[in-house]
Design a protein that fits this description.
Layout lengths: L1 H17 L7 H4 L11 E5 L6 E5 L8 E6 L2 E6 L2 H6 L6 E2 L5 E6 L2 E6 L5 E3 L7 E6 L5 E6 L2 E6 L5 E3 L3 E2 L2 H6 L6 H11 L2 E2 L3 E2 H18 L3 H13 L1 H20 L7 E2 L4 E7 L5 E8 L8 E4 L8 E4 L10 E8 L4 E4 L19 H10 L5 E3 L3 E2 L6 E7 L4 E8 L4 E9 L17 E2 L4 E6 L6 E6 L5 E3 L7 E6 L5 E6 L8 E6 L6 E2 L6 E6 L5 E8 L2 E9 L7 E2 L6 H4 L7 E6 L5 E7 L10 E5 L17 H12 L3 E6 L8 H4 L9 H17 L6 E6 L1 H12 L6 E5 L10 H8 L6 H7 L11 E7 L7 H13 L5 E6 L9 H19 L2
Parallel strand pairs: 13-16, 42-43, 42-44, 44-45, 45-46, 46-47
Antiparallel strand pairs: 1-2, 2-3, 3-4, 5-6, 6-7, 7-8, 9-10, 10-11, 11-12, 14-15, 17-18, 18-21, 19-20, 21-22, 23-25, 24-25, 25-26, 26-27, 28-29, 29-30, 30-31, 32-33, 33-34, 34-35, 36-37, 37-38, 38-39, 40-41, 41-43
């Protein structure tokens, strides 16, 4: 009895200990994240709005499962396998009255009746049918198959092919059946038309026409022509045959079915297929792949085969880019013609940076070439009267919203946004961004024309524009209500670090805030627009799911409780958020983890967020940086003051902050950190000789620039998966900010750490995954060789053989952050 009681106490104590985190260590916080609890993710509604689905793992199983709730019963229930098999995909397209939805599933098309919830399969083929949508009058489904556009009638199921693209124009043209003997025979036999003594046209006229054609082809000389004329003159049977040949040719011409026009596209890719609401016009884009491109490879050393395997990767910035041209196919006139770009306002404008290169400027001015552009998918008004396309310059300096005259292929300007840095911001992208039709004349879009991304509406008929929202805040997501009377959008109106959900009339006015919890609110609106499913978090509280009526002031109800008892047992800091002025007088947002007991050396560590264009100083949980959040708490527990800032180049603060790093990464973004260190010294009593810095990706790049160019400010740093030379990164990201290496060498040289490596004085730790397909391992190898040649001794490189850009293995996280912690303890706690 006594023994049993002792074992029971031991079991209770063990259970209690397991749920208490105790003092933080690297080993504890870098475990498999399941120890923290797994937040709900991928939240979406059923089509009827009766259920909310989400992925969740409350039991810390090997994999997440699909769960569901209803608005009136918010208790999560695991979705059965049978229900999952019968579920419809979340995407699809609705008809005008929202009574039917068409969607693709496993390469086939299905039609769902909203009233009954029943689905009817429309296609069942070996080919994939995709991109289904309703025709302008809702009587047909328009879809893509094998790069061509088709329709299927909802009444009767008639299948119609609308385009006939061919990738080998010469072969395709030759393969079109000629209306000669064979065709004539089939037509004649089918209609019972005799001729020449009652012979069936299948044998007689088909063969006769073939022989006549052969005779015509061989009559290449005057002698042959004379003989043929003589035969007709002498023999009545020849006269009769010539007469019947002419009659049959005329009949075949009248009965012939016009062949479908072939549109030769050579080896180009077909994109942006779109049918006008009246079915007359098809717009499309042809993309020609660049010649002479060379891709990098990423060697993978730890493989299942035991052999080193190469992973094909990307091009480098400055590599030749694909080009595109957009067209209109007029089915009524059976004509194809290009959309004309030569009259786009500013099509020949050169970027300002070229002025730094007088010789190139002179050459480009002499050539006077149109800039290369790409045209997005045509967007038609419901009545088919107007079409709008978004045109983007390949040099990233312009975005035009243009009205397309489909009958002529001509464009006329509705809006132009020019940015001497690069076009960007929330709701603005080369694919169109947040755009659409309010009615048959009014088209909405987002623009940074005011300095912040806001909502605009243009009257396509008159060209009149109106800005609907304004202020020193950004519209971060945007959608139109079902009845097209209201906008729903997410914005950081109250504070740059707080995201709320709003409703506003399409005519403008004061936005109505629908969410009330301070922090991060990721909202999914129900299809009937009666409910909000909210994924909410706070600075030190991971995401949970809430449900709330779509009414201002309504109380949200918590659905999930994901955080483990062990995680909750520690008092995680909610770092103080504040602003300071940088040397240019700009407000920079920051947050600080203050230690209860500062170490005697009064050390500080600056964490630099990655991506560049990303927001870190927010009142929400960071799903991208939860490891760093916990590590910063550990540092603060051990006497460090830890600072994070949203430096120049970060998201959430408008155009000027976004583009402040143009042509000089490691310029204002780095000086913001130097200014922040000065603040730490003045306000928090930090010893200026004991400041460290760390970060990954762009944060790793910043760490290198800090140690190489500001060695008297930063005593130690850990650069993780760092970009060391921007000329070796990808095109899409880098060319936006630095143009291209061969035409703006100055920007690359002043922005790449490898050119400043000789400035290293403090201790540097570099960590990199060997199978990094984003910032290739080659980047850190090249810098290592440079440091060797410079005879630098105060650096080390830790490699992680199985890790890509974002580490996955807990053992890798633990090893990496153990090294970082050791570095700071050895250098900053003197």
């Amino acid at each position: 009895m006594k023994r049993t009681f002792t074992l029971f106490l031991l079991a209770c104590c063990t259970s209690t200990f397991a749920q208490t985190l105790g003092p933080l260590t690297v080993e504890k916080i870098m475990r498999d994240p399941k120890w923290m609890g797994v937040s709900p993710s991928n939240v979406y509604w059923s089509d009827d709005g009766k259920k909310v689905y989400f992925n969740w793992n409350p039991d810390k199983a090997e994999r997440e499962s699909l769960y569901a709730i209803t608005p009136t019963n918010p208790k999560p229930e695991k979705v059965s396998l049978d229900e999952r098999k019968d579920m419809r995909p979340a995407g699809g397209s609705w008809n005008t009255k929202r009574t039917m939805k068409v969607y693709e599933k496993n390469g086939d098309l299905f039609l769902m009746d909203a009233k009954t919830g029943a689905s009817t399969q429309l296609t069942k083929t070996a080919d994939r049918e995709s991109n289904p949508a309703f025709s302008g009058d809702d009587s047909k489904i328009v879809f893509t198959k094998s790069e061509n556009l088709y329709t299927i009638a909802l009444n009767g199921g008639e299948l119609t092919q609308l385009t006939n693209f061919t990738h080998n124009a010469a072969t395709a043209v030759a393969a079109v059946p000629a209306f000669g003997g064979g065709a004539g025979g089939r037509r004649g036999g089918g209609n019972g038309t005799g001729g020449g003594g009652g012979r069936g046209t299948g044998g007689g006229f088909g063969g006769g026409a073939g022989r006549a054609a052969a005779t015509d082809q061989n009559a290449g000389s005057k002698q042959d022509a004379w003989l043929k004329a003589q035969q007709t003159e002498l023999f009545d049977v020849m006269k009769e045959k010539e007469k019947n040949d002419k009659l049959n040719a005329a009949e075949r011409k009248e009965l012939a079915v016009k062949p479908m026009r072939e549109i030769g596209v050579d080896d180009k890719q077909i994109r942006s297929l779109q049918l006008s609401p009246d079915g007359r016009y098809v717009t499309y884009t042809l993309i020609k792949a660049a010649d002479g491109t060379k891709n990098t490879i990423v060697p993978n050393y730890v493989t299942a085969t035991g052999y080193t395997e190469d992973i094909p990767n990307r091009t480098k910035v400055g590599a030749p880019q694909s080009t595109s041209e957009s067209f209109v196919y007029d089915e009524q006139r059976d004509t194809v013609y290009a959309i004309q770009t030569k009259d786009i306002p500013g099509i020949k404008d050169l970027p300002d940076y070229v002025k730094d290169y007088p010789k190139e400027l002179e050459e480009r001015q002499a050539r006077n070439e149109d800039r290369k552009v790409s045209i997005g998918t045509a967007s038609w008004s419901a009545d088919g009267k107007y079409a709008v396309v978004i045109v983007n310059a390949q040099d990233y300096k312009d975005r035009w919203i243009m009205k397309l005259d489909a009958e002529t292929g001509k464009l006329s300007l509705l809006d132009r946004q020019r940015d001497e840095a690069w076009i960007g911001g929330p709701g603005i992208s080369s694919f169109g961004g947040s755009t659409g039709w309010i009615d048959n004349q009014h088209y909405y879009f987002q623009s940074e024309a005011s300095g912040y991304s806001h909502i605009y509406v243009v009257n396509v008929a008159t060209g009149d524009k109106k800005q609907l929202t304004n202020g020193r805040w950004e519209v971060q997501s945007l959608r139109l209500s079902n009845d097209k009377k209201d906008f729903y959008f997410t914005a950081n109106m109250d504070h740059p670090g707080v995201a709320d959900f709003y409703r506003m009339a399409v005519t403008g006015g004061t936005p109505v805030k629908l969410t009330s919890m301070k922090g991060g609110n990721e909202v999914e609106l129900s299809p009937d627009e009666k409910w909000l499913a909210i994924r909410y978090s706070y600075t030190n509280k991971p995401y949970e799911l809430y449900i709330q009526p779509n009414k201002p002031g309504a109380k949200p109800v918590q659905v999930t409780s994901s955080v483990s008892e062990e995680f909750k047992s520690y008092a995680w800091r909610a770092p103080e958020i504040f602003t300071f002025k940088n040397r240019y007088g700009t407000d920079i947002y920051a947050r600080v983890y203050a230690p209860a007991n500062p170490a005697p050396s009064h050390p500080a560590v600056v964490f630099v967020h990655g991506a560049g264009y990303l927001q870190d100083v927010m009142y929400k949980w960071s799903s991208s940086y939860f490891h760093e959040f916990m590590f910063n708490n550990l540092l603060a527990d051990n006497g460090y003051t830890v600072l994070e800032i949203d430096y120049t180049g970060s998201a959430g603060y408008g155009r000027d902050i976004r583009t402040g790093i143009y042509r000089h990464m490691g310029g204002k973004d780095l000086s913001d950190h130097v200014d922040a260190v000065k603040l730490l010294v003045e306000k928090y009593g930090i010893n200026p000789k004991n400041v460290g810095i760390y970060g990954g990706s762009y944060g790793g790049f910043m760490t290198l620039m800090a140690l190489f160019t500001e060695p008297d400010v930063f005593a130690a740093g850990a650069g993780l998966r760092s970009v060391t030379d921007w000329a070796h990164y990808n095109h899409g990201y880098t060319a936006n900010i630095l143009n291209e290496p061969y035409n703006d060498e100055k920007a690359y040289k002043q922005s790449s750490p490898i050119y400043f490596a000789d400035g290293l004085k403090g201790r540097l730790l570099m960590c990199h995954g060997m199978v990094d397909q984003n910032v290739n391992f080659q980047d850190i190898v090249r810098l290592s060789q440079k440091l060797i040649e410079l005879h630098k001794q105060n650096w080390e490189l830790a490699v992680f053989p199985v890790e890509d850009h974002g580490f996955v293995q807990p053992s890798s996280w633990t090893d990496e952050y153990s090294r970082i912690y050791k570095l700071f303890n050895e250098t900053l706690k003197k």
